Amino acid sequence: MPNRTVTMIDNRTGEKYDFPILEPTIGPDVVDISTFYGNTGMFTFDRGFTSTASCRSKITYIDGGKGQLMYRGYDIAYLATQKTFLDSAYLLLNNDLPDEETLASFTEEMKKRSFIHEGMKKLFDAFPDNAHPMAILSAGVSALSTFYFDHLDVDTPEEYMEMAHRIVAKIPTIAALSYRYSQGLPVIYPDMNKGFTENFLYMLRGYPHHHIDLKPIEVKALDTIFTLHADHEQNASTTTVRVVASTHAHPYACIASGIAALWGRAHGGANESVIRQLEMIGSVENVDKYIAKAKDPDDPFRLMGFGHRVYKNFDPRATILKEIQQELVQELNLDTGLMAVAKKIEEIALSDEYFIKRNLYPNIDFYSGIILQALKIPKEMFAVIFVIGRTPGWISQWIELKEQDNIKIARPRQLYLGPLDRTPKY
Ligand code: CMC
Prior knowledge:
Elements: E1 5-10, E2 15-22, E3 30-31, H1 36-40, E4 60-63, E5 68-71, E6 74-75, H2 76-82, H3 85-94, H4 100-112, H5 121-125, H6 133-147, H7 157-183, H8 196-205, H9 216-229, H10 236-245, H11 251-262, H12 270-281, H13 287-295, H14 316-331, H15 337-351, H16 353-357, H17 364-374, H18 382-402
Antiparallel strand pairs: 1-2, 2-3, 4-5, 5-6
Helix pairs in contact: 2-9, 3-9, 3-18, 4-7, 6-7, 6-11, 7-8, 7-18, 9-14, 9-17, 9-18, 10-11, 10-18, 11-18, 12-17, 14-17
Carboxymethyl coenzyme *A binds next to helix 17.
């Protein structure tokens, strides 16, 4: 049995330090450097956490080289094509897929909890017209703590699950209201006769007392987008949720922080940026010019919806969405100029040396932006859609952290390069 350690030699002194190697179920071995500072008096430096495992987790696994993604051991393609979003949400929260009866009662539970306190409507009224729905959503989730404040200290598995159900069920309602208020549209309450995803589309696009004709392909496309976003290991927003949770902040604060982190264009804001960029490019004739800009090292312009920190082969979520996009185009008879621009960009990028060398493939946001636009969902709502999908993942990760024996506050150190000795004599 080989010695499962890594030895570090300080070449200045010749001193040797051993660090244990932890063995995962699958994936790269992990060197435990938690004693590094104590033993060596030095910090490690890892900008952007490219080599750092920040926690132990049993929830989601990604192999970026193979383009593989699993929730609780189930392949994403199986979950996205054979199961619903609520199946995946239940799986993430409970570790097992629900049987038919369990799924039915979970669906009922989501419906019952989908209404929000009427008093919350005053909050929405306070925002100016055209406020971004992500801003209203994060404020709305924070505000839940003021309406359901008797449940802020959650410490038992039953309380975790109640909190999970409340947040997963209410976020689509807050999300839809964020949009309705930002547009001055009449409020639509949840419809107890509709399923989770259908109900969200209804609250977003419907009118009071008016039947809305939603095509099954539209509901399926959005449900698949929710499933594909449901969890993604220790990404920026999930890490944010865990960092905030490590301070023992209440779960609404943790989820609101996750929403803030997700908003950025390098993360969940990318699908909105994809469409804005396609609109800016405007026509197929302009594509070459923008590809050249993306390749120019002196130009900060990046092709939105391309590249990924972890996937260096292809993004399995993008492959599934590409198929959905094709189905949608056929069934809804869509033919927009933007799709032609997107197709040209995709063709060039997939065959261009610059993109191939750097493993820059279309990611989930490249296709989700185009699909959401086909579903007549306004651009400002794209990141909000991502939030609805990601919520079960954030809460599962929050529960996993809460269930640890001793939670350690997340508190990284730094490489200080600032000034010294500037205090005057006084
Ligand atoms: N367009 C042009 N060049 C790019 C792009 C792009 N979209 N992405 C990366 N590069 C280049 C980059 O300039 C660098 O080139 P060089 O080696 O010559 O300096 C190289 O590729 C590596 O880039 P990086 O920034 O070091 O890679 P990263 O892993 O830190 O960043 C990323 C990953 C997703 C932030 C980045 O690829 C990006 O900004 N993409 C566009 C935004 C986007 O689509 N984000 C959605 C990510 S998927 C949703 C999610 O999971 O949150």
